[in-house]
Task: inverse folding
């Protein structure tokens, strides 16, 4: 019998990456989140409400790092959470652009002068939730790979991806299999993520 995440010191950040409000991915993520113990704090941030400009790669330039207000909100929230849930619809078989851009910013946070982002993220847990029009989750493999490898790079744990099927808003509610998986999704084992060549 899988166990619920231990409440002690856990806190979940849900990063919503859809291009429309009240989308299927958020519905499925909320169904899974409902099962979390009530004493585990949840924070929900919608990337549409916190738009980030295209990431500018200044990693190898001198000068201090100064993020905008939205970037700073996302950076702080990311660092405060023990568990980060990427809730992105499947767009062109991978993450939505908003979600991908948020991950691009992780590269900036990794290399900002004096940053301890990599050290602080190590040991935390990355999760994914996605909804797609295609009924076969196999086509979402690239999204799973992106999240697993990102977690592996940061020496994070990876809880896997919760898949749902739906196209028009709300359609994921018809996906009984996804609803069932949502009930226990956050009870899964969260092994340290590994690159394929490390297994
Ligand atoms: C830009 C775009 C790209 C999409 N690409 C895919 C895709 O590659 N595979 C798929 O099965 N569905 C694809 N879809 C359908 C969405 O994944 C589906 O409508 C999903 O329910 C949207 O989730 P949301 O309601 O949370 O935004 C795409 C939709 C859009 C708008």
Result:
């Amino acid at each position: 019998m899988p166990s619920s995440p231990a409440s002690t010191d856990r806190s979940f950040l849900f990063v919503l990456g859809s291009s429309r409000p009240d989308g299927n991915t958020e519905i499925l993520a909320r169904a899974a989140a409902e099962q979390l113990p009530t004493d585990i704090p949840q924070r929900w941030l919608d990337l549409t409400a916190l738009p980030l400009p295209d990431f500018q790669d200044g990693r190898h330039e001198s000068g201090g790092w100064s993020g905008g207000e939205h970037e700073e909100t996302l950076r702080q929230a990311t660092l405060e959470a023990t568990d980060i849930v990427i809730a992105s619809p499947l767009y062109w078989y991978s993450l939505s652009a908003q979600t991908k851009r948020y991950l691009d910013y992780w590269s900036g946070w990794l290399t900002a002068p004096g940053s301890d982002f990599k050290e602080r993220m190590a040991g935390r847990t990355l999760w994914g939730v996605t909804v797609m029009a295609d009924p076969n989750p196999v086509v979402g493999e690239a999204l799973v790979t992106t999240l697993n490898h990102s977690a592996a790079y940061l020496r994070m744990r990876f809880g896997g991806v919760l898949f749902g099927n739906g196209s028009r808003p709300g359609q994921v509610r018809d996906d009984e299999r996804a609803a069932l998986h949502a009930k226990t999704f956050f009870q899964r084992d969260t092994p340290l993520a590994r690159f394929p060549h490390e297994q």
Remarks:
- The domain at 7-54+64-188 is CATH 3.40.50.360 (Rossmann fold).
- The chain has one domain: 7-54+64-188.
- The longest strand covers residues 157-165.
